[in-house]
Amino acid sequence: MTTVPTAIDEPPAASERRFWRPPGFVRFVLRRLAALVLLTLGITAVAFVLTQLVPSNAVATNLGEQAAGDPAAVQAFKHHYGLDRPLPVRYAIYLDHLVHGDLGQSSLTHDAVTHDLGQFIPATGELALYSVLFAAIVGIGFGTVAALRRNRPTDHLLRVASLAGISMPTFWIALVALYVGFFKLGWFPGAERLDPGVSPPPSVTGLYTIDALIAGKFSLFVQALHHLILPALVLAAFNVSLLTRFTRSAVLEVIGNDYVRAARAKGLPERVVVVRYILRAALPSVITVLGLVFANVLTGAVLVEKIFSWPGIGQYAYEAAVNLDVPAIAGVSIFVAVVYVTINFIVDVLYGVIDPRIRIT
Amino acid sequence: MSVLAVESLRVKLPIPGGDVTIVDGVDYDVQPGEVFGIAGESGSGKTISMLALLGLLPEHSTVEGTALFAGKELIGMPRRELRDIAGRDLAMVFQDPFTSLHPMLTVGRQLSEHVRRHLHLDRHAAEERAVELLEDVRIPDPRAALRAYPHHFSGGMRQRIAIAIALACRPKLLIADEPTTALDVTVQAGILRLLDRLRREQDLAVILITHDLGVLSSIADRVSVFYAGRVVESGARGDVLQHPRHPYTRALLDALPHPEAAKERPLVAIGGSPPTPGHIPSGCSFHTRCTHAVDSCRVDVPELRAVSDRRLACPVDPFSA
Fold first, then answer.
1. What is the pLDDT of residues A252-296, one digit of tens each?
2. Is B126 exposed, middle or buried (0-12, 13-18, 19+ CB in 10 A)?
3. Residues of chain A found within 8 Å of residue B87, distances taken between Cβ atoms
4. Residues 273 through 292 of chain B touching chain A, CB cutoff 8 Å
5. Cβ contact (<8 Å) for A3 and B259?
6. Would you list the domain boundaries of chain B?
7. Comparing A41-45, A62-66, B140-144, B210-214, which segment has the lowest mean pLDDT?
8. Quick one: B222 exposed, middle or buried, by C-beta within 10 A (0-12, 13-18, 19+)?
């Protein structure tokens, strides 16, 4: 019966002496960064090929009627944009222009696409920022509460609400919100980033709310925020529901873990157990969804900006698409894709920050 | 005075379609500085009876009986009050060190957060205490270990860390729930010796829960054997393990590999399987698997009675000296 020797002192057995490795977090980030660069290159290739496949005639759309009839002008135009060269060479030229910040000229605005993007991106950025912020705070909060109150009335209520939010299409919510909030109740403005005739604050970030605060114009900040509320909430509706559902299941997955029980056995207050032990462990799955939410907001922006006359990238993309403005379409595609890839990169790095086990693999 | 005195502890857990009794009236007491062993197969209610003390049972569980810990009644104590005792005077080590430490929090954080709360130490003092604790449980390079994460350590090391966490506030009683089950045999021995040394040095009482009587034979002072949520035999280690009188204790010991006697005595498995909660046989719950059962065992629930050197719940008493 004496399976255990009874000596008093106990150096750890050799099998116990395995030790830890250095964190290597920098290496982890660099590797993800390299992947980011490769992905971006791939995206430009796809965007370029797509522009070549679109049945639009660059000569006809860019040159006037007379110039298009003049073979020398057409030749000069084609030569200037490399249209007389083979596809791979054209791609190389395209890339060359791209790294020099030249996305071509929009056939609709007759401005450089980069100039147009620079004008429209901050509007969308501001809308997306507030929308994602709202969705994250409310969605994660709701999901956590639902999980902690599992199978109680609060949980059931949140389940029904989030199901509704996920089922209703964004454009429909946008129309209803506009009808009720603007037309019927008159609580919110229905269009644009500021009231008509009001000039924006001096541009620093391009985000009116922040620029207004920087300029010290509080009333302008309030007005900009007022204009943001309706479209931001509409854009957030679907994502709040999405985050509620995912957070709930992520929290439920970790809530029964031994380390949660161990934390309670240590006598930690419930608040610490929930935030530090449960939410921390649920965070990786939640962040994955948060990346998705960003993507949803950018996609949803096309419709919502159209409905709320929001002068953002979504409207620009819409106009470009219906008018076959190929350089603009390609420019928007590349911008959106780069945003996606960057968000994915941030999500990857955040995984590593949150979960130390990921840094090693 | 005993550190912990448990009387008629009864625990019911909610399952779909009603409650099921897991612990059915157990009594025991733990003296200061002793290792009190609780043995029994899985499902015999060992762990649940401990979780009940710390208020860690699932919602809607019902707990009856009394559990006096340092003069305070634990059963029915409000959560808020219990939080000041749990982790401070009454600590617990869980079975699996791979799941009982949070994978995303540093060892240092998990070692010091409750110390700061319970003992009101500042960051620096708590860190010094953490280093001391890691030295106590023989973790090499304790300062570096504070900044490491659980996955940097092997299973045995993690269990040492879990023990350090449990002992951080110098508790009066440590509940160790199968602390060696998830570990290799050589590592097991190290952990048991560690527990044995710590309770000598710190005058700590330990409740050691295990299904392995071999573990108890090396360090327990007194032993209680659980079967289907009840105590069937309890007494001093030597009495119970050398001269078992309950047929179940005897069967458990016969089922144990015996290094010295391996050649002469084949291992004897206990026939049948432990009853599942909710399907406990009538009378003596062991009678369906007992080779000594008589007719009355099927009907009468045997009481735990004091017989000479121990307490025994078997009126047949086939192995009385």
1. 999 988 999 999 999 999 999 999 999 999 999 999 999 889 888
2. buried
3. 265-268
4. none
5. yes
6. 4-89+170-312, 103-168
7. A62-66
8. buried
- Asked if A357's CB is within 8 angstroms of B92's CB, the reply is no
SS3 B301: coil
What residues in B contact A276, CB-CB < 8 Å?
105, 113
| CATH 3.90.10.10, domain B4-89+170-312, yes or no | no
Q: Does B94 sit within 8 Å of A8, measured CB to CB? A: no
A245 pLDDT tier (thresholds 50, 70, 90): very high
Number of H helices, E strands in chain A: 15, 0
- Considering only the beta carbons, identify the residue of B152, B162, B217 that sits closest to A1: B217
Please name the member of A4, A267, A355 whose beta carbon is closest to the beta carbon of B104: A355
Instruction: Give the residue extent of every domain in chain A.
Output: 113-354
CATH number of A113-354: 1.10.3720.10
User: Which residue carries 């089950």 as its tokens?
Assistant: B181
ipTM higher than 0.90? no
What is the C-alpha separation between A108 and A325, in angstroms, rounded? 6
Q: What's the pLDDT band for A13 if we cut at 50, 70, 90?
A: low
Residue to mutate among B100, B170, B208, B223, with most A CBs inside 10 A, is B100
